[in-house]
Amino acid sequence: MEKLGIEPSLLLAQIINFAITVVVLTKLLYKPILGMLAKRKLEIEEGLASAQRQRAEEEKLAGRKEKLLSEARREARIILEDAKKQGKDVEHDIVAAAQGQAAEIIEKAKREARVEHEALAGAIRRESVDLAAAMAKRLVVSILSSGDQHKLIAKHLADLGKAKRV
Description:
By secondary structure, the protein is mostly helical. The chain has one domain. It is 94% helix and 0% strand. It contains two helices and no strands.
């Protein structure tokens, strides 16, 4: 080794120095660094586990949220259908009441028209009788005697009375 320019005592001293440096570095730096790395690895693993737990919890909450939203939508649909049904029932009741009132008004108008018709017919009959009597009187006065006139008028009135009853 001397040919290479290396002194064995110096090489041995360098090897011993290197070994001492490695031992010192291992004791002072390497073990604490390994401890910090292990601690950091543990923290990362715990963080990942915590993140997974949180993700699972979020998924669970999202599922519950979706279920609650679905239930709320279903209940809203039921409430809306009930409201529509109640609205139709109310509409039907209002229409039925209006139709009933219209029928009553029509019936009342028919009754009033009948009564008025009968009153007018009676008035026309009375006027017809009076007119016929006046005409008959003039005719009878010119043709018949007083006694014959009374008989004819009585007969005519009796016939009119029968016609009214029919």
